[in-house]
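Quick one: structure tokens for this chain, please?
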Amino acid sequence: MKLPLKWKFPVSKIENGELKEECLHREIKEELHNDIILHSALTMVEHHYADFSLQLSPFVCSLQSSEVKALEHTQAI
């Protein structure tokens, strides 16, 4: 992990042949054990650090269940 002990958005590299929306569904399921409903895409954001860059594709979405399980991290909402 490039920035340990920091809060982060659920994020993952898009797998070969995978759509951004599919990647987000997969990542939320893996990290929070929940399904989401995608409402709309927001403007892509790029951020440059000294040794790497990030390109984020944010979406407005909602959880299908209020039950969240932190499977990948020690803290959650």
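The first strand starts at residue 36 and ends at 41.
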